């Protein structure tokens, strides 16, 4: 699978998103799973503060970026594969799913069930909507079953003002 340059993974853009999102407190000290991380750059600045950080990404093209990141971050792990078939012999204290829900091909209930099976009690889900409507029912299921801690626009400042992007990021806690 090829990939083209993706601005959301560029250094300054990641810095900007980290500043807007402020998720550090939800992942510090935790065993974290990030689904669909692309190059893995978005939360790389927080890897050292986590107990363990696992990237789950179906596009093998990104593997070389993960190997490079692992040299700097020994607690970084990765698996090449989709969320649909993912199973782990561990549970996670936080799961990160940024702009990936609409890419998953198993339907909303199955997506929720899999998140629920992977997340520890009291764990956090950091999840971003997509610009398309596919699988949006996942968010209804999360609203009904989890505690919503935060909801914010993915972008502030000029991008929000120009109305270029309508995504939102939600933080949920599994009761
Ligand atoms: C829109 S990009 C978002 C990338 C990154 N999360 C970000 O916010 O910068 C979607 C990512 O999800 C990955 N992806 C696509 N289908 C997937 C699946 N079934 N399971 C897990 N990840 C998937 C893509 O390869 C890509 O890295």
Short description:
The protein has 175 residues and is of the alpha/beta class. The chain has 6 helices and 7 strands, in the order ααββαββαβαβαβ.
Summarize the structure in words.
The termini are far apart. The chain is built from six helices and seven strands; from the N terminus they run ααββαββαβαβαβ. The model has no long low-confidence stretch (mean pLDDT 92). It has one domain (7-165): Vaccinia Virus protein VP39 (Rossmann fold, 3-Layer(aba) Sandwich). A seven-stranded mixed beta sheet has the order 3-2-1-4-5-7-6, sandwiched between helices. Helix content is 29%, strand content 26%. The structure holds S-adenosylmethionine. S-adenosylmethionine (SAM) is lined by residues 8-9, 35-38, 42, 56-59, 82-84, 98-100, 103-104. S-adenosylmethionine binds at residues 8-9, 35-38, 42, 56-59, 82-84, 98-100, 103-104.
Named CATH topology = Rossmann fold
Total discrete domains: 1
Helix/strand-derived category reads alpha/beta
| Largest β sheet strand count, sense and barrel closure | 7 strands, mixed
Helix content: 25-40%
Q: Report the mean per-residue pLDDT as an integer.
A: 92
């Amino acid at each position: 699978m090829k990939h083209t340059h993706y601005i959301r993974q560029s250094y300054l853009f990641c810095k900007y998103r980290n500043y807007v999102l402020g998720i550090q407190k939800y992942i510090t000290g935790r065993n974290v799973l990030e689904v669909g991380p692309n190059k893995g750059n978005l939360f790389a600045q927080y890897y050292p503060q986590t107990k363990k950080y696992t990237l789950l990404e179906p596009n093998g093209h990104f593997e070389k970026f993960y190997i490079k990141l692992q040299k700097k971050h020994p607690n970084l792990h990765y698996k090449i594969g989709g969320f649909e078939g993912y199973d782990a012999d561990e549970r996670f204290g936080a799961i990160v799913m940024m702009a990936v829900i609409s890419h998953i091909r198993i339907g909303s209930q199955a997506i929720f069930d899999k998140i629920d099976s992977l997340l520890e009690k009291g764990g956090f889900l950091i999840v971003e909507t997509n610009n398309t409507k596919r699988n949006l029912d996942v968010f209804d299921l999360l609203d009904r079953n989890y505690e919503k801690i935060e909801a914010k626009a993915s972008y502030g400042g000029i991008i929000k003002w120009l109305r270029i992007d309508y995504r939102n990021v939600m933080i949920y806690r599994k009761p």
